[in-house]
Amino acid sequence: MYNTIALELEGSLISNALSQFPRPGLWAFLDYCVKRFDRLVLFTCVNEERVRNIRNTLESEGRNPMEIIDIEIVQSQDRYKDLNYLDISPVNALLVDDQEAYVEPQQKANWVDIKCRDYP
User: How do residues 22-60 score in pLDDT, each as one tens digit?
Assistant: First the structure.
């Protein structure tokens, strides 16, 4: 059973780090994740300071659910988003990402493919 969900930011949850348009239905999805998984992780290439600014912007616009204000941030350390960076066995985690190219090839079974959220 999966107890951790790693959520990629750009293209998956929001359009990108500049425009920051949330995906339609994002808050309901995050609410589901909070109730379903023991651990939520934002797994991103965007630096942590920029991620915090994005969260603050969404919150100030009333578009940020309280559940993700303190979400754990894990920086991608190389080309792939390797679930081993989460300090758990990858078999216990799912990765939600819109780009297959960033999924660790050995962990494709843990990947949830999501259509890219483009700038509206």
Answer: 888 888 888 889 889 999 999 999 988 998 888 887 777
* Residues forming beta bridges with residue 39, ordered by sequence position: 4
Buried b (16+ CB within 10 A) or exposed e, 65-81: beebeebebbeeeeebb
Q: Which helix (H) or strand (E) holds 32?
A: helix 26-36
Q: Are 105 and 60 in contact (CB under 8 A)?
A: no
Q: What angle do CA 24, 27, 32 make, to 5 degrees?
A: 120
| pTM of structure | 0.88
Structure tokens at 95: 């990765």
Of the candidates 66, 2, 74, 70, the one whose C-alpha atom is nearest the C-alpha of residue 31 is: 66
Instruction: Count the Cβ atoms, other than its own, within 10 Å of residue 119.
Output: 10
Sort residue 103 into left (φ over 0), alpha (ψ -120 to 50) or beta. Answer: beta
